[in-house]
Design goal:
22% helix, globular, homodimer, alpha/beta, 243 residues
């Protein structure tokens, strides 16, 4: 038996369930999105280490997983999508041109993934990696992956990352969204969960007052250590999370 | 200059800003709640270690802090309310009978704290500690503090905690709320952020199928180590977070 009343947000005639989930080891946000009527669900950026938590939640909420969706090929954690495909009938969805031939579906800029009445629109936002999608959900919230963080952004120093490209993705595509659009990032390291496009345009220190040239310099000067799991995560994620 | 468009949720004619914030060291959730019109704000269970993050967010959103509100006297972290009182004109608010004489205001069961048009109703829910309030916000979401967690509950083995009392608080008061009420806990250790009363009634392993007697036995058998900071946190919080 499943719960009858979920935390739906009614948008027009659509009832959507939206849950943000956190992996504290890698500070990764996973998003569970579902149509409350059809009970079809998507997990965006699921983490292999959290697969049992997420499967239990799907089961308790009476949801059927249709898609495991990636914003990009992750370097910090192994995706749960490969294992979820084995355990359920879900499909693996990645951005167009992502180096994951194993995927079932590739989403190009502007393409829409439908889950019941929920619309998830891919917005190509490369720069952190050479292939990266943000996902606009029902036109009122955007999952920004590692393109845009709350008062930050993803690094651009591996996986063919490119600071100039990321600058254009954020300033020309994400910042062009309506100001009230909610921003749900792929990671947060300071305990923020959500922001808005308005806030990020005004207060994101990576972009406010930065020309493309000064942003490139800022990013090139970061000198960050590699993610701990990069050597295992990237090859695994290129095989849709198979290890 | 502050952002013009915040993530308001319109309830009738009320526009509320609601932000959940996380302290990863102690897995504590802090809640920022504000009236978008009057720009008055409350922080519930603010963490001293995160005071700069929270002050910056208040400033960027153009909010004036009116109250630092505690669900109870915490044992795992030091409250930011004392320091916030020094830095702003906010008042410290605690549950009735909480051992914090320094507080400006004591909220008894059913009392309402108003912040602009936002209503925050205290629901006395002792048991984790002998004085504890949950807070029902605008009648559609409840901050459950350490009474009820997502698929769990607070421990009952210190600060005059009592398992029988907690059982009654949860099953008679919190589970009596409408099923669609959103549950926002004081902590989560597995990466869940929100739940509903319906879900907790059906799936919380601490309560499902448990009589009061079996719940008491379960809680008494937990044998948990003390929180790392208990020796400094409790005395500090009894002085409203002064250290």
């Amino acid at each position: 038996m499943v719960v009858k009343t979920l935390n739906a947000r009614r948008i027009g005639h659509k009832a959507m369930l939206f849950r943000q989930l956190f992996d504290s080891e890698t500070s990764t946000y996973t998003y569970l999105i579902a149509d409350e009527g059809t009970k079809e669900a998507v997990l965006v950026d699921p983490v292999l280490d959290k697969i049992e938590r997420d499967r239990q939640l799907l089961q308790e909420l009476g949801l059927t997983l249709r898609y495991g969706v990636e914003t990009h090929i992750h370097a910090d954690h192994i995706s749960a999508t490969g294992r979820l495909r084995e355990l359920t009938n879900c499909q693996g969805v990645v951005p167009e041109n992502a180096s994951a031939k194993c995927a079932d579906r590739f989403l190009g800029d502007g393409e829409i993934l439908r889950v019941g009445s929920v619309e998830i629109k891919a917005i190509a936002t490369p720069g952190h990696t050479d292939s990266h999608n943000a996902y606009l959900v029902n036109n009122d919230r955007i999952l920004t992956g590692d393109a845009l963080f709350i008062r930050g952004c993803g690094r651009t120093d591996f996986q063919n990352g490119d600071a100039a490209t990321l600058y254009d993705s954020v300033t020309q595509k994400l910042f062009a969204l309506p100001e009230e659009t909610l921003v749900y990032p792929g990671h947060d390291y300071r305990g923020h969960l959500v922001s808005t496009i308005a806030e990020e345009k005004q207060y994101n220190p990576r972009f406010v007052g930065k020309t493309k040239t000064s942003f490139i310099k800022l990013m090139n000067d970061l000198n960050l250590p590699n993610p701990k799991k990069i050597m295992e995560a990237v090859p695994a994620n290129e095989k849709c999370g198979k290890i």
